[in-house]
Amino acid sequence: HDPERAGVPRTGRAAAPRVIAVTSGKGGVGKTNIVANLGYAFTRLGKKVLILDADLGLGNLDVLL
């Protein structure tokens, strides 16, 4: 078992999660597409990804996935 290969720092504590927020006051500028592609790219790198579409009225991330 190699902690560095597993992504665990030598201290034994897990790294703090990172948050990337994609926002805009205007609709139709590609936020959902950017987020879906970023999520896909990070999963290809072996990262865990959680995507939250906070557009309660017109959220359509499920359509892209």
Could you characterize what this model shows?
The protein is mostly helical. It has one domain. It is built from 2 helices and no strands. It has helices at residues 31-44, 61-64. It is elongated. The model has no long low-confidence stretch (mean pLDDT 81).
Percent range for β-strand residues: under 5%
What is the CA–CA distance across the termini?
Answer: 34 Å
Global shape:
elongated
Report the mean per-residue pLDDT as an integer.
81
> How many strand elements?
0
The string of secondary-structure elements, in order, is: HH
* Structural class category: mainly alpha
Number of helical runs?
Answer: 2
Low-confidence segments: none
Feature tags:
65 residues; mainly alpha; 2 helices; 28% helix
List the helices and strands and how they pair.
Blueprint: H1 31-44, H2 61-64
Short note summarizing the structure:
The protein has 65 residues and is an all-alpha fold.
